[in-house]
Every structure is written in C-alpha cells, then in structure tokens.
Amino acid sequence: MHLSSILKEYGVDIKKTKLVRHPLNKTDIRDVYERGMIEAYQSSQSKNCFDNCKYIASFVGTTGTEAKFIGLYEIVDIIDGSEVMKHMPEGYPYPNHFDDTHRFYVMKKLETMSDMDNKLIIDWGKGALAWFQWAENDKEVLSIAS
Q1: In whole numbers, what is the pLDDT of the chain averaged over residues?
Q2: 34 — phi, psi (to 5°)?
Q3: What's the whole-model pTM score?
Q4: Under a CB-based contact definition with an 8 Å cutoff, are residues 59 and 124 in contact?
Q5: pLDDT of amino acid 128
Q6: pLDDT number for residue 144
Q7: What does the chain look like in DSSP terms, one character per residue?
Q8: Handedness of CA 34, 35, 39, 44 (dihedral sign)
Q9: 54 contacts: CB under 8 Å, gap ≥ 6
Q10: Please, which residues bridge with residue 123 across strands?
C-alpha cells in the first residue's frame, strides 16, 4: 500500500500537496515537538518551500527512514518580513525561527485524515534527504495502528 492511495481515498489532491518530514533527531525540532509547538515550527520557514502548494501532509521522523503522520494542513496565507515575528507563540524557544528572513505560512489543520494522526507510519525512503517533497513522490505505508 502506498501513501498516495490513502491520500486519494480521503479526497486529497496529491498534485497540490507536499509531504513534510520533521526529523526528531535534530535538537531544535525535537524540542519544539516535545513542547507541543511543532505547528509553529513548520509554519515559519527560511525559504519559500510551501508557496506553490495548497496542502501539506506533515510527518515527524521517528527511527531510520520512518515517518509518523501528524496531520494534514491547508495553507491559507503567507506573511513575510517583520510581520513574521508577530506570529511566534509565547515561550517559543528559538526566536531566530521567526526573524525577518523567514516566511510565515498561516495553516489550518484539517479534519481530513485526522483519524490517521499518530497512527500512520510511512517509509520516507533511503537517500531521500529532502525534508519536503511533492505527494506524487510515493511513499510505502509501513503500518497503521488501531
């Protein structure tokens, strides 16, 4: 079974969707994930990685090349420059993630696929170092927990 089949089953347009993998072996990412601030982290980016998509299917890297699904998000607005800092949550431990060199993507977590949150595990792939990819780059489903 492949991720694209599941996305299509839920009515997600894979041509408008990027897959995002936040590796928990990076200290800052693990820290914001454990603080419940991964959504803030993924919303503020140093490049325009989400400008040309409508949705992101978000994952956290667990072990090896595995990735656990944490939600489907719709991008509803893009904010640049000094306005980015205004979107940093109180207590966020890395203010440099929200400086004026970043772009803030206003995202809305969708109910679509929420029954798969923290249950769907995929193989991101060996040698697939890019942390974001189009959903058309199919990924093997390793497991779906009950």
Answers
A1: 92
A2: -65, -25
A3: 0.92
A4: yes
A5: 54
A6: 95
A7: -BHHHHHHHTT--GGGEEEEEEETTSHHHHHHHHTT-HHHHHHEESS-TTTT-SEEEEEEE-STTEEEEEEEEEEEEEEEGGGGGGGPPTT-S-GGGGSTTSEEEEEEE-STTGGGTTTEEEE--TT---SEEETTS--EEEEE--
A8: negative
A9: 13, 16, 17, 74, 75
A10: 66, 140
Residue 101 token pair: 């060199």
Would you state the structure tokens that stand for residue 17, as one six-digit string? 């969707």
Tens digits of per-residue pLDDT, 80-114? Answer: 999 999 999 999 999 999 999 999 999 999 999 99
| CB-count exposure of residue 17 (10 Å: 0-12, 13-18, 19+) | buried
Tokens 């189009």 belong to: 134
